[in-house]
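Might I ask for a little of your time on a matter of protein folding? What I wish to show you is a protein chain and, alongside it, a tokenised description of its three-dimensional fold. I should value your view on which stretches of the chain appear to form regular backbone elements. You will find the record immediately after this paragraph:
***
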Amino acid sequence: MTGEWWQENGFCNYLSILPVFHFSNATKVSLLPHPFPPPYSPPMTLQPSHSVFVTGHRGMVGSALVRALEKRGQRQIITASRSEVDLTRQQPVEDFISTKKPDVVIVAAAKVGGIHANSAYPAEFMYENLMIAANLIHAAHRAGVKRLLFLGSSCIYPREAPQPMPEDCLLTSPLEKTNEAYALAKIAGLKLCQHYRSQYGALFHSAMPTNLYGPGDNYHPENSHVIPGLIRRFHEAKASGASDVTIWGTGTPKREFLHVDDLASACLHLLAVENPPDWVNVGSSQEVTIGELAALIQEVVGFRGALRFDTTKPDGTPRKLLDVSLLGSFGWKARTPLRTGLDAAYADFKKAIEAAVVRD
């Protein structure tokens, strides 16, 4: 394998973090599935009669996809709980997909979390997300699934990526250390789809959303993402009469946020594209600092105390804004303003509190 090949494919600056494997002449390595799957038909777009397997249907993203599919009139939506199919185990995944024979698979299942969770449990984040991606993508290929959409994250792009981040900046420089494990697993899934597509003609492609929020989010006090974490913190501070709320970091990093129903809309839009890109960014183009976001959520919740910033805690990537021009060229655009989405998210959180069904 030549140095020119690596440079052309954007890996040149990333070799330092990847392991190198050496095989003796006697080692036999087969990357081909056995038996061979049925030949792939010409590009297929999603139709109401198609069966769709949505993984992670109880999570925020998966449940949004199920809602969008139901609203669209999809007649066959396949789901499976963790107790029914452990997606980190290859054989159960292959058995399930070969039995159900879905036309389309959407990989929305993932182990996710905020800066604290990613920093504290990198092994679990990398292992579980690698296994979910590898098992589902390979099983879909073996079963002759006509189309697969893999969902990743904007954290796949380098820490110092140009802003806004275009798709082609992938693997051009090092990742943000605080979520490197999760990002590498998502990059592996994206690349696996790309290679099954180029090698076998499987219509497997990916969508890389920005930071998400909305109904069904995880509100764990330590391991959640920034918006659900702040909603819970401000809500509890208001209820207890606290004088202030402390936010991790300096408050200066800039972030983009996308309502999960907009992501679901984008996914269905992509599944209607006959020949989509290997991967495409999905964002809102709405950018705020963490400090501005905290003040906005404080206003939504109605907390009247002070905001404080713990500058001993990590900030993460300085700025994360996706270039969404490629998806825009296919006629899609996010529709939910941030304030509108936050109002709805807080209303959903309060309903979940009253029903004692808050995810954490």
